[in-house]
Amino acid sequence: MKNTQPVRSTAEYQAMDAAHHIHAFLDQKALNEEGARVITRGEGLYVWDNEGKQYLDGMSGLWCTNVGYGRPELIDAATRQLKELSYYNMFFHTTHPAVVELSERLFSLLPGNYSHVIYTNSGSEANEVLIRTVRRFWDVMGQPDKKIFIGRHNGYHGSTVGSASLGGMAFMHEMGNLPIPGVEHIAEPYWYAHGGKLSPAEFGLKCAQELEAKILQLGADKVAAFVAEPFQGAGGMIFPPESYWPEIQRICRQYDVLLCADEVIGGFGRTGEWFAHQHFDFQPDTLSIAKGLTSGYIPMGGLVLSRRMAEALIAKGGVFAHGLTYSGHPVAAAVALANLDVLQGEGMVQAVKQDTGPYLQRCLREVFADHPLVGDIQGTGMVAALQLCEDKASRQLFANEDDIGWRCRTHGFDEGLIIRSTHGRMIMAPALAITRSQIDELVGKTRRAVDRTAQELGLL
Ligand code: PXG
User: Fold this and answer.
1) Using an 8 Å Cβ cutoff, are 405 and 389 in contact?
2) Closest Cα to residue 226, out of 308, 143, 305, 130?
3) Can you tell me which family this protein belongs to (predicted)?
4) Mean pLDDT of 132-142
5) Which of 153, 282, 324, 436 could pair with 168 in a Cys bridge, judged by C-beta atoms 3.0 to 4.6 Å apart?
6) Cβ 356 under 6 angstroms from ligand 1
């Protein structure tokens, strides 16, 4: 597929961008010296830059374009809805068909213990709403002292004040005096880096039991909820040991602490199940969703509530003092519904579970098991991470792993592959629409990027 003619030169776009735009999560001064990559087009699994260079997008945008780029069904749904009803709100006793249809479809995909959703525009907002809704729930349950949230170090729940507080990114907390009061953190279940001599199972239990210790320290009557991603996404695609989630669930149930799963990355088929908590086999009380809900074509997120929570809030809560202008936006809802039609109609989630997911995971393990730079391969379905390490036997990480990961990712870009580094982990999460031959391309290009990095380090 040919790239369309650039309207402006890349240098022009870069200069205009540098003049007016503060980017996400980077040193703006350094970017302005280097110039931003200008992406102009996307189709299927590929994007093109302003120079016409093609990239296989190994991270589906930002873990969100689950059906791939440019699907006409989603584009047509947006166009139809824009013509029919371009905007209306959910305030003042009002609804509209697009959002009603979407809600019904969403709960046809979810287990029966969930019944209601509060729509937002993003994952960060879903987690902001989580804080207020959980606190409100405990108020109406007659336990107004249950207010504290427990999150995890290196967890990611968004970039707004509340959601960044729930998250455990120290460098984010440094900006803007976070976390807010009433949020505590426990260790992340990252066995490769922190497990020491413990087996993964022992380490998983140890990390989970930190939750129990924290609840006992704070008082169970003060703790509202534990919030976590089923697997850590932005933190490095870190999969917890198998012993972790059953123990977390036992602790939450024992102390009547709500279990809140952040499904923003894991939801909508990423693991081969519709939601990642189903892959890990635990039953959260709330689900934060976004990204794959619309495959990123248009912003939309939400907070899914268990029947127990929704019934209590509806029966006893009175006025729910929350609402966003764009909650349940009709165009977003129409696109989400079309997205779910494609995911379901083409059996994409099933394919990830039964065919393409196992194939990707098998190829990665075959290609990288004996690689001198790769100490561990984690993942399931359409999400995976390669752990780069200095010494495989002792699981020694590189002191400058950020730099090495970044170099590897840059080699990936040279090879025409978008892959992401998080510290020393090379992480990938391509669109669920990927074919076996595109998986071959993804693994082959990743291999060349990792090999080039290993050669620079004198390991190959
Ligand atoms: N929860 C999780 C688990 C996420 O991954 C959010 C909440 C926030 O969603 P919004 O829509 O507000 O961005 C996210 C977002 C990365 C990266 O570098 C990941 C995210 C965002 C930006 C970068 O992996 N995830």
Assistant:
1) no
2) 130
3) Belongs to the class-III pyridoxal-phosphate-dependent aminotransferase family.
4) 98
5) 153
6) no
**Alpha carbon distance 45, 432 (integer Å):** 9
Strands 148-152 and 223-228 come out as parallel
Q: What is the pLDDT of residues 144-180, one digit of tens each?
A: 999 999 999 999 999 999 999 999 999 999 999 999 9
314 pocket-lining for ligand 1 (C-beta < 6 Å)? no
pLDDT value at residue 4 = 62
With a 6 A CB cut-off, is 160 part of the ligand 1 pocket?
A: no
Sheet strand arrangement including 46-49: 39-43, 46-49, 54-57, 417-418
Same domain, 104 and 124: yes
For 232-253, how does the pLDDT look when each residue is reduced to its tens digit (9 = 90+)? 999 999 999 999 999 999 999 9
Question: How far is ligand 1, taken at its centre, from the CA of residue 318, in Å?
Answer: 32
Question: Is ligand 1 within 6 A of the CB of residue 290?
Answer: yes
Count Cβ atoms below 10 Å from residue 87 Cβ, excluding itself. Answer: 12
Query: Is 156's C-beta closer than 6 angstroms to any atom of ligand 1?
Result: yes
Q: Which domain holds residue 435?
A: 37-70+355-456
Residues 190 and 270 in one domain: yes
Q: Under a CB-based contact definition with an 8 Å cutoff, are residues 405 and 43 in contact? A: no
Predicted TM-score of the model (pTM): 0.97
Mutation probe of ligand 1 site: the residue of 25, 60, 265, 428 with most atoms within 8 A of C-beta: 265
* Residue 58, ligand 1, Cβ within 6 A: no
